[in-house]
Amino acid sequence: MYTYQKEINLKPRARGFHLITREIESSFPDISNINFGMLNVFIKHTSAGLTINENADPTVREDFESHINKMVPENQAYYKHTFEGPDDMPAHIKASLMGTSVNVPITNGKLNLGIWQGIYLCEHRNNAGSRKIVITAQGN
Amino acid sequence: MYTYQKEINLKPRARGFHLITREIESSFPDISNINFGMLNVFIKHTSAGLTINENADPTVREDFESHINKMVPENQAYYKHTFEGPDDMPAHIKASLMGTSVNVPITNGKLNLGIWQGIYLCEHRNNAGSRKIVITAQGN
Amino acid sequence: MYTYQKEINLKPRARGFHLITREIESSFPDISNINFGMLNVFIKHTSAGLTINENADPTVREDFESHINKMVPENQAYYKHTFEGPDDMPAHIKASLMGTSVNVPITNGKLNLGIWQGIYLCEHRNNAGSRKIVITAQGN
Fold first, then answer.
1. Chains with 3 or more CB pairs closer than 8 angstroms to B?
2. DSSP calls for B80-107
C-alpha cells in the first residue's frame, strides 16, 4: 500500500456551490496509480466546506445556496461572533453542516463516483480568495 | 497493510431511515481479516445518504424522518430544480446534510462501533430502487 | 504503510462545542511516526458528534450552540422518542448533522490543519459523562 498526498490551491469562486471534480482529478494524477483504495479531499478553512452531490443540472447548486441561506440565516440576534461581517458566522456553521472533507473510493485508477455524483466546493463567504485543499490517496 | 473493496446493491427501502449494519457486515466478510484499520461505506447516489446513529428504538429513525422533512421542506418557492418531483431537490440537500459516506474503525476483525451505534441508509426519495454502495476496508 | 490505533476517554464536558485538538494530539503521539497519511477520530456515541471549525474565538462555539438549538429544537410535537428527556432526540439529530468522525491529513508527523482549524467535540446532552473516541492513523 502507498500514500500519495498533495496540497493545491483552488481558484477563487463566488459564494455558492461549485463542481470541482475535474480540478481535483487533473491536479492529482496519482489516482491512476491505485487499483483499490480511498481518496480524501480536505479543505483547510472554516468558512467553506466540501460535499458530494448532483453533477449535471446547475439549478441543483443554486437551490443548495438558496436553502442553506434559509437554514442558516444571517443577522440573527443570538450571533455574538459578528466582527467579520454578517456572512461570517453563518459560513462557519454551513461549513460544518456540509463537512470539511469528502472520501471517495478509488477503483482501477479512477474515482468510483456514481454517474450523477460530483465533488462540490461550498463557498460560504461573499469575497473569498483561493482555498487550500489537501488531497490524499491511499491504496494498492 | 491491505485494501479490501467490494461494490454491493442494497435492497430497496421505503423513504426514511434504515439500519443496514448487518447487511454490510454479512456481505463483506473481509472485515475479519483486519486487526487494526478503517472501514468506509460510500453510497453512489445523490438523493440518499449514510449516517451513524442509534440502533435500538425504531422511533428514533421515525423522528429523524419527521425532523429532516421540517428542516428541508418540499415545494419551496425558491426551488428551481423541480422536474423530478417535489421530493427530489429536498432529497439532494438531505443527502449532503447526512453525508455520502461513513467511516468506522476496525479493531480485532470487527467494526468498533459503540454499543448503541448502527449504520443508517437515509432514503430520501419516495420511490427509490436498489442503492449501490462501495465498501472499502484498509488496515493490517 | 502502518496503522496506529488507540481508544481514549475524553474528559466530560458541558453541553456545547469544545476544542479537543490538544487532547487528541497529546494522547496519540503516534501521529509523529507518519510522514504522509490520514487521521480519523471516531466518537462511539449517538448523542455527541465531532466536527472541525474555528479554533480562536470562543463566541464561534457559543453561536454554534445557539444556532443548532434553533435548527433542531426540543419538545417538538412530532418527536416520539422522548423517554430519555427533551434533550435526547435533538441530540441524536444534531450528532448526525455534525458527524460521527472527522478525517485530517497527516503531513511530516503533524496534523495538517489550516491555521484557524480545530477539532470540536459537539456535546448535545445536558448531563453527559466521559465520551469514548477511537483514533486511527494510517500512512507511511
1. A, C
2. ---TT-TTHHHHHHHHHHH-SEEEEEEE
* Torsions phi, psi for C84 (to 5 deg): -100, 15
One-letter amino acid identity for C76?
Q
Interface contact C64-A93, CB threshold 8 A: yes
3-state DSSP assignment of residue B67: helix
Helices (H) and strands (E) counted in chain C, each on its own, are 3, 8
Contact A38 B136 (CB under 8 A): yes
The ipTM value here is 0.98
Which residue on chain B is closest to C92 by alpha carbon? B53
Considering only residues 8 to 47 of chain A, which have any Cβ-Cβ distance to chain C shorter than 8 Å? 40, 42-46
> pTM to 2 decimals?
0.98
Binned at pLDDT 50, 70 and 90, residue A46 comes out as very high
CA B127 to CA B131: how far, in whole Å? 12
Domains identified in chain C and CATH numbers: 2-139 (2.60.120.460)
Three-state secondary structure call for residue C97? helix
Residues 56-95, chain B, touching C (beta carbon < 8 A): 57, 59-60, 62-64, 66-68, 70-71
Q: Note whether B130 and B35 are within 8 A (CB).
A: no
